[in-house]
């Protein structure tokens, strides 16, 4: 009954990349409909398929879902990546929200005017090193298990590992003093579905760059 | 076993107010520990209670939860305000995320310097009138039911009604052309728990103002 999920976005990481990671990690095949021009966005808006006139939008199981967190949460629910009870869900959400806060700085940076990007990079490095990475290292240390919550893979592990890759792209030694984060990154990267996603030819996008910024400007402004 | 939830925040609406609304609507009594001075702030950060060194933080059922959405979701799950299945959860999340996007603008509004406030106010009015209110009016119209999702009260209804009150404080005629939203606001306001919360003497905070801004500056900077 349900076909493959269909992702509507422009051709870059932006806010859709975390969704791609989650679907890929869950072993779900998906299609992408890339917007290339202002007209493409206007058409989607006129069709009435974007509840708040924004993307990401994912067509999945008969729904046209917008809002990144609504999409993640549905995928996590559907694929048993959301813990076993409401307290585990609360921890998973608390960890995910911290990840999202740091990832937000990273994903918006390419779209800032070039002169602001340096300061933003310093902020990212500082927050990663002094606020977020210590918090997650502490969680893993506290229970010594392979996953952040309930000894089982959840959206928190997948999104944290995506974040680690993102930060390392900007700052190669970023996880050097966080052995448990390094171990988590290795473990998650070796899951067959994630391994496949990390290989060339997958639907994973290269880092957003100047070209992306220009394209996004055309479509969104 | 579980005492009352304990809310840690400064004495203002900020990011805690939505949590107060939800707890109140669910009929849950709660305590508040206000951060009033720089010393209070330094102490709570030093004692390791804040996963990311930030508030809101809510002590609930043995957890010290931070991150507004994690807290909101736990309360919603615990008090049956999150729909009956995954698809209803997805709709509820999608709606709540839209509400949160507009509410974010009203939360930070008091913090802007006077010159910037004028522009921000126009933005809030425009987004409310042209993007968010029509979207929710359309949902209610589409099924004609008393609540946004599944004919049952959820976090989406409560948080949307909070938003309507917030926008009306800035723009009194904001929902004049949205009859379904007006009806929802009336219905939710008449629920016994919400009615009580809306009366003087409840834990509801007055709008954040200049004084709030100064206090927050002292504590957080």
TrEMBL record, chain A:
<dbReference type="GO" id="GO:0004364">
    <property type="term" value="F:glutathione transferase activity"/>
</dbReference>
<feature type="domain" description="GST C-terminal">
    <location>
        <begin position="85"/>
        <end position="208"/>
    </location>
</feature>
<protein>
    <recommendedName>
        <fullName>Glutathione S-transferase</fullName>
        <ecNumber>2.5.1.18</ecNumber>
    </recommendedName>
</protein>
<dbReference type="GO" id="GO:0070062">
    <property type="term" value="C:extracellular exosome"/>
</dbReference>
<dbReference type="InterPro" id="IPR036249">
    <property type="entry name" value="Thioredoxin-like_sf"/>
</dbReference>
<dbReference type="GO" id="GO:0006805">
    <property type="term" value="P:xenobiotic metabolic process"/>
</dbReference>
<comment type="similarity">
    <text>Belongs to the GST superfamily. Alpha family.</text>
</comment>
<dbReference type="InterPro" id="IPR004046">
    <property type="entry name" value="GST_C"/>
</dbReference>
<dbReference type="Pfam" id="PF02798">
    <property type="entry name" value="GST_N"/>
</dbReference>
<dbReference type="InterPro" id="IPR040079">
    <property type="entry name" value="Glutathione_S-Trfase"/>
</dbReference>
<dbReference type="InterPro" id="IPR010987">
    <property type="entry name" value="Glutathione-S-Trfase_C-like"/>
</dbReference>
<dbReference type="InterPro" id="IPR003080">
    <property type="entry name" value="GST_alpha"/>
</dbReference>
<dbReference type="InterPro" id="IPR050213">
    <property type="entry name" value="GST_superfamily"/>
</dbReference>
<dbReference type="Pfam" id="PF00043">
    <property type="entry name" value="GST_C"/>
</dbReference>
<feature type="domain" description="GST N-terminal">
    <location>
        <begin position="3"/>
        <end position="83"/>
    </location>
</feature>
<dbReference type="GO" id="GO:0006749">
    <property type="term" value="P:glutathione metabolic process"/>
</dbReference>
<dbReference type="InterPro" id="IPR004045">
    <property type="entry name" value="Glutathione_S-Trfase_N"/>
</dbReference>
<dbReference type="GO" id="GO:0005829">
    <property type="term" value="C:cytosol"/>
</dbReference>
<keyword id="KW-0808">Transferase</keyword>
<dbReference type="InterPro" id="IPR036282">
    <property type="entry name" value="Glutathione-S-Trfase_C_sf"/>
</dbReference>
Automatic annotation (TrEMBL), chain B:
<comment type="similarity">
    <text>Belongs to the GST superfamily. Alpha family.</text>
</comment>
<dbReference type="GO" id="GO:0070062">
    <property type="term" value="C:extracellular exosome"/>
</dbReference>
<dbReference type="InterPro" id="IPR004046">
    <property type="entry name" value="GST_C"/>
</dbReference>
<dbReference type="InterPro" id="IPR040079">
    <property type="entry name" value="Glutathione_S-Trfase"/>
</dbReference>
<dbReference type="Pfam" id="PF02798">
    <property type="entry name" value="GST_N"/>
</dbReference>
<dbReference type="GO" id="GO:0006805">
    <property type="term" value="P:xenobiotic metabolic process"/>
</dbReference>
<dbReference type="InterPro" id="IPR036282">
    <property type="entry name" value="Glutathione-S-Trfase_C_sf"/>
</dbReference>
<dbReference type="InterPro" id="IPR003080">
    <property type="entry name" value="GST_alpha"/>
</dbReference>
<dbReference type="InterPro" id="IPR004045">
    <property type="entry name" value="Glutathione_S-Trfase_N"/>
</dbReference>
<dbReference type="Pfam" id="PF14497">
    <property type="entry name" value="GST_C_3"/>
</dbReference>
<feature type="domain" description="GST N-terminal">
    <location>
        <begin position="3"/>
        <end position="83"/>
    </location>
</feature>
<dbReference type="GO" id="GO:0006749">
    <property type="term" value="P:glutathione metabolic process"/>
</dbReference>
<dbReference type="InterPro" id="IPR050213">
    <property type="entry name" value="GST_superfamily"/>
</dbReference>
<dbReference type="InterPro" id="IPR036249">
    <property type="entry name" value="Thioredoxin-like_sf"/>
</dbReference>
<protein>
    <recommendedName>
        <fullName>glutathione transferase</fullName>
        <ecNumber>2.5.1.18</ecNumber>
    </recommendedName>
</protein>
<dbReference type="InterPro" id="IPR010987">
    <property type="entry name" value="Glutathione-S-Trfase_C-like"/>
</dbReference>
<feature type="domain" description="GST C-terminal">
    <location>
        <begin position="85"/>
        <end position="208"/>
    </location>
</feature>
<keyword id="KW-0808">Transferase</keyword>
<dbReference type="GO" id="GO:0004364">
    <property type="term" value="F:glutathione transferase activity"/>
</dbReference>
<dbReference type="GO" id="GO:0005829">
    <property type="term" value="C:cytosol"/>
</dbReference>
């Amino acid at each position: 009954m349900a076909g493959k999920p269909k992702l509507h976005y422009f051709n870059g990481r932006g806010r859709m990349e975390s969704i791609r990671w989650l679907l890929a990690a869950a072993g779900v095949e998906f299609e992408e409909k890339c917007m290339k021009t202002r007209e493409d966005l206007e058409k989607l808006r006129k069709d009435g398929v974007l509840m708040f006139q924004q993307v990401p939008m994912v067509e999945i199981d008969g729904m046209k879902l917008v809002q990144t967190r609504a999409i993640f949460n549905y995928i996590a629910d559907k694929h048993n990546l959301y813990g076993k009870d409401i307290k585990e869900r609360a921890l998973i959400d608390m960890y995910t929200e911290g990840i999202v806060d740091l990832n937000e700085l990273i994903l918006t940076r390419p779209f800032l005017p070039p002169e602001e990007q340096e300061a933003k990079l310093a902020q990212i490095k500082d927050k990663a090193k002094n606020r977020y990475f210590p918090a997650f290292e502490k969680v893993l240390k506290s229970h010594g298990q392979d996953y952040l919550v309930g000894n089982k893979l959840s959206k928190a592990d997948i999104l944290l590992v995506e974040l680690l890759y993102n930060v390392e792209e900007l700052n190669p030694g970023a996880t050097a003093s966080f052995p448990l984060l390094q171990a988590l990154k290795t473990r998650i990267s070796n899951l067959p579905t994630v391994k496949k996603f990390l290989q060339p030819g997958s639907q994973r996008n290269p880092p957003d760059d100047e070209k992306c910024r220009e394209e996004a400007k055309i479509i969104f402004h």
